[in-house]
Write the structure tokens for this entry.
Amino acid sequence: MPILKAGERHTVTLTLNGRPATGYAESRTLLSDFIRHELGATGTHVGCEHGVCGACTVRVDGKAVRSCLTLAVQAAGCQVETVEGLAPRGTLSILQEAFKRHHAVQCGYCTPGILMSLTHYLETNPEATEMQLREVIGGHLCRCTGYTQIVAAAVDVATRLREAARKP
Amino acid sequence: MPVRGDTLYAAILRSPHPHAEILSIDASKALARPGVAAVLTGPEVKAMTEPFIVGVKAPIDDWALAVDRVRYVGEPVAVIVAGDRYQAEDALDAIEVEYRPLPIELDPRTAARPDATLLHPACKSNIVHDRTFRYGDPESAFANAPHRIKLEVEYPRVLCAPMEGYIVVADHNAAEDSFDVIANFQGPFSVLTVVPRALRVAGNKFRLRTPPNSGGSFGSKLAIFPYMVLICIAAKKTGRPVKWVEDRLEHLAASGSGPHRITNIEAAVAKDGEILALNCDHLEEYGALLRAPMPGPLYRMHGVTTGTYGIRHLAIRNRIVLTNKAPVSLVRGFGGPQIYFALERLVQRIAVELKLEPLAVMRRNLIPANAFPYRTAAGALLDSGDFQNAIATAIDEGGLGELQHRREEARKAGRLYGIGFACASEPGVSNMGYLSTLLPLEARRKAGPKDGAIGTATVAVDGNGQVTVASDSTPQGQGHRTVLAQIVADELGLTPNDIAVNVELDTSKDAWSIAAGNYASRFAASTANAAYLAAGRIRKKLAAIAALSLGVSSESLTFKGGKICSLTDPTKTLPLYRVAGMAHWSPGSLPDDITPGLRETVQWNPRELTPPTENDEINTSLTYGFIFDFCGVEIDRITGEVRIDKYVTMHDGGRLLNPALVESQVHGALGQAFGATLYENFAYGADGNLLTSTFADYLLPTAMEIPPTQLLYQETPSPFTPLGTKGVGEGNSMTTPACIGNAVADALGIRDVPLPITPVRIAALLHGEELPPPAKFTSAPSSTTAATVERRHDSLMQRLFSKREQL
């Protein structure tokens, strides 16, 4: 483990959505700030900077984490996935499609975080029930939608995944 | 938002005191910190700017940043501008401020007393506005009424807390002494006029551009304007662009919540439940300053103080009191929740006291369906409606019978179950003259008439027939682009995908008016109509050009599938792009009465929005939708938790332009209203410190807290809007607290329902106040729990105000 000095800028290299990315970070630089300001991937949004709202959720080595509670230097060498990497450019993931279909987006500020959490959860729990999905969404704050259409979109995807799994 | 490479970043030092004199500020150590370019403090702000003008006649001292005195925790005291945000925040710690604490006023009732500590000594009182209104003959009605039924209700402060905070990027052009600002301001743009005034430049030397996307607002982003002034001054001082992004702590502490209102409401009632007269005495707390467009909440609903009821005799008293809390700003509902929590709770109370069904009292007083347009006692001109039918449909389709059955079963089993009702007249598009109702007649005459509400939209077709739409509605996620594309596509026989819509607003070159912005549910009933009319003008022009070319009359032409074709002769047809091309490429061949080019801007103003009359009658809004809600709640006997069994809401929002978007608005308002009613508590400690400074303290509802809801619609078009539309964005913010409050009152058989209806409060009603913890768990004597909590928050505040300490 490298020894980092406060106040000095360090080179941080990680894999962002499958491609190597390098930038400078102080030891205290938040991963959210590093991703947005240093790497220019502004799809990740920052809503509270104290880990409650969930807007900044990204995946680090597959796990959904709050990037505002993670230091950039902690993610060095890791696989970091953000909303930009959910689907190839010009296409939407099955979850993004469902959000569109159910009108689960209004201002879109909380959306990237919710998509990252749900993507992670549905990957590991394709048989998720409505209550489980509600609990996952319950880890995020949204002020526009009242959540109803977000829950509907998540349930829709879980249903499709379940049906797809049952097909021989 | 992309910024120039030499942009500096601002951080703001905020007051840790609710009330104190600033004896000295020493920024020299901060200036010596790495990366720091400048520091702004009170004396400089005083030298470089003007104070903000105030809506009432009171000498309230209001600057963009504290000058000589702080009046609430979180008030800006200094601005640091540095190479990046981290450096700016680091340097905040090095600013040395010497304060002399002053006594504080937090409670509206005590702040209103003559012996209270004065927030603004020049005002001589913390009551900065006191005005009474009288319509009909309320005194006689009260004197002769068989029953007088009253209630005191309080509607506390509530935050909208959009997920994105305020963002300002400002630049100063020294050669022209002009400012260029990008900010996620939401309007009303009438308020924007105070910014150049404060900056001592003419309005045309202040350019505001709004971004293409904005992460929610719900009223909140109106109050960004003082920060525009601060960041402009920072840019002027440094000669470089300056960017400031509000963080969550700053938003919770200082962005401004809704007001805290105490209403004493009394009705004169006949034996059958008819309300003969109403008396409303409002005392509204606005915090330390009264910033434009305050006191909007107190007057926005003035015309519909009597709600959906035909009450002809009315008395109103409006008082404004200042306290050592954050200044109030716009929130969704804006005055509606306060009015309807009082009125609809009173209707329930009348039913209880007269042993009538709440629905029967409601129905006895509703304005009849054949009475529209209906002028209320206070002057609102209700455009249209069929309240009786909406209620009947909602009861039937929403399954009130089933809820009543569940209540009966629950009560038999000894459980606490209640049903509540509420209805409301939901205003859309505010009359720009409504606030002048607060002025006495003489002052109004002197100021000149204020009225109307202009909606602005532009439709342009280029030489290849491609259509672009721009509007004045600065949306933050409501889907205005979708709706504008739909309206214009329909008019021109195209598909929504053919239409490009840009809703960024540039005050230096786009069409706008003081009524522009995204507030008062104005889009569907104002801007959308302007777009419809502009598209109509384009259509007429295209038809005239095509008619000449085809040798037919323009009336015989229709627009379909990208073509302009004769209704009678199918051979006579031209592609739209071809006709549009003629307007651009051959203006000489156009008929004499057709102007060249294809660009139409419509600024539409409804005639119904007239100024206040000599008798203080005011048509506060253009359209009035109808909402009727009912819900069943069950209350846990042990914990006091309120669980909503089912919530039904019926909306008559006039003609619905896009039902999916309307549904989204209703779900969104409902979500916010569940929070305001049951969870959100914007709390200050007894020492004036903010207790709810994080999202772990200010509890917004999550997906887990949203109960089963049923949404129902009725469409009664408005006769006052070309599209028949009304405003629909805020309704449940207004009805839901009253509806749940009435259900809780029904479940517990109680008179007063405190907001938010938290388990602690209900448990106190059920079991008495909680006993203090045993002595061994307390570390300090008496009232220890609250004091400990406050101390904890004190230190949390301090830590969070300089959140990125050296690690």
Summary: The first strand of chain B starts at residue 8 and ends at 14. The first helix of chain B runs from residue 28 to 31.
